[in-house]
Amino acid sequence: MFSFGDIMAEALGLILTWDRDLSEIVLLSLRVTLTAVAISCLIGLPLGAVVGAFRFRGRGTVTVLLNALMGLPPVVVGLFVYLMLSNAGPLGILGLLYTPTAMIIAQTILVTPIVAALTKQVVEDLHGEYAEQFASFGLTARARVAALLWDARYSLLTVALAGFGRAVAEVGAVLIVGGNINHVTRVMTTTIALETSKGNLELALALGVLLLGLAVIVNAAVMALRASAVRAAYA
Amino acid sequence: MRDTVMDIRAESAVAAQPLLEARGVGFSAGGQPLIHGIDLGIEPGRRTLVMGANGSGKSLLLRLLHGLLTPSSGQVLWRGHAPDRGARRAQAMVFQRPVMLRRSVLANLNFALKVHGMAGRARAARVQEALDMARLSDLASHPARVLSGGEQQRLAVARALMCEPDLLFLDEPTSSLDPASTQMIEDLVNAAHARGVTIVMVTHDLGQARRMGDEVIFLHAGRVAERGPLHQVLGAPRSEAARAWTQGRLYTGTPH
């Protein structure tokens, strides 16, 4: 029976020795998460900006839908993507099940509503300030969205950060569509779940520490950038 | 001979055509009428002041004329036609509280020219002119939102004027500024007027009105109570509403 201190010491030893397996898992986690967040931002930022800046029929419904989808249960998304990508599903022919791409798809579905809903709020507030000036300039809808997204860029970093937090910590969906296959789809969260169930607490804890460290570093970097922007009155 | 007479008449008709015209413009919000069927024309090259007590509808009228609000009834015409994109580009507006983008002074000016469709190379020279005009060259790289109120308003006026509008709307542009800043804004606006820009400005300041106005549209309770040359409306007002206002009295009666 190991004490917590022993397990922690072994976990730190694993991090310091940084073997190939650990490196592979961390890098795949980053690849899947960052790709999903990037795609979510490509979709969610303009979508949220449009909903935030314009009045149109059905806007209230879209807003309610986006807010509701922020709380999507990951396992339900995982199941949905699984059914779509399985051999019997409409996209089965693509052969994407149990690949990192499937994991990216699942995470994108989870993160996009978060990015869109938070962007909508940020842009709506900014648009309230700019609306008359933009109307006076005679800005086209596209130029208006582009200008709002640019001027809200530092606030939107926090939005992207929220998406990153959701994606990097997610386990249910990626486990279902990725299958946690060694050297193929094994990421930090699924490994932690697996190794804990096997009783291999050292590796699980090592990955847990890394995951926490990663989250702290990314958060700190974004917050520092935002703070400098606030000081310069650009945020 | 007959053709010549007709040509002269046609030219007179063109010359008499207002730059901007409100025909029966009304505006309601929440079922409450705020502007009541206003008819007026803004002639080119004039400095028209919109005056009246708080809540009389001055800012609302300015927004309706500029097209920021859609009239509930009636219509606004630009050079005799329904305003199009070109009409919007021929007008500019400066707000009571200047709206500064979260960008540098330089980027604020560049943005206005860019959306106005000016190519990058031509923009640099025009931006420098605007910076010089607003006396903001030293602050070009500063974030616009950290400028003082007077500097922000000078930037807003320069940003509006650099696109060379035919008509400039100003909604109490100096209401929160000190005398020196007010003087600078007035100089900018008067210089623009000297270049042929038509001015429509809301102001409460009688001194400013005397320095800046050719004529006054006096509003009361969403209606034009009186319109006429500056000296007449401020010196010998015909309407009770304008008379009360110039004497500093509260007037709650109907304008007609």
Short description:
Chain A is mainly alpha-helical. Chain A has helices spanning 4-17, 20-53, 59-69, 74-85, 100-137, 141-151, 153-168, 172-178, 188-198, 201-231.
How would you characterize the overall build of this protein?
The complex is a heterodimer of chains A (235) and B (256). With 235 residues, chain A is mainly alpha-helical. Chain A has helices at 4-17, 20-53, 59-69, 74-85, 100-137, 141-151, 153-168, 172-178, 188-198, 201-231. Chain A has a single domain, classed as Orthogonal Bundle (MetI-like fold). In chain A, helix 4 (74-85) packs across helix 5, helix 4 (74-85) runs parallel beside helix 8 and helix 7 (153-168) runs antiparallel to helix 10 (201-231). The longest helix of chain A has 38 residues, at 100-137. Chain A is globular, with a radius of gyration of 21 Å. The model of chain A has no long low-confidence stretch (mean pLDDT 92). Chain B is of the alpha/beta class. The longest helix of chain B has 16 residues, at 179-194. Chain B has one domain (15-246): P-loop containing nucleotide triphosphate hydrolases (Rossmann fold, 3-Layer(aba) Sandwich), CATH 3.40.50. Chain B is globular. Chain B has ten helices and nine strands. In chain B, helix 4 crosses helix 5 (120-133). Residues 1-14 of chain B have low confidence and may be disordered. In chain B, the strands form two sheets. Chain B has a six-stranded mixed sheet, sandwiched between helices. In chain B, strands 2-1-4 form a three-stranded antiparallel sheet, with helices on one face.
What's the tally of helices of chain A?
10
Shape annotation of chain B: globular
Secondary structure: helix percent of chain A: over 70%
Q: Give the amount of beta strand of chain A, in percent.
A: under 5%
CATH superfamily of chain B: P-loop containing nucleotide triphosphate hydrolases
CATH class label of chain B: Alpha Beta
Name of the CATH class of chain A: Mainly Alpha
Gyration radius over CA of chain A: 21 Å
Q: Count of helices of chain B? A: 10
CATH superfamily of chain A: MetI-like
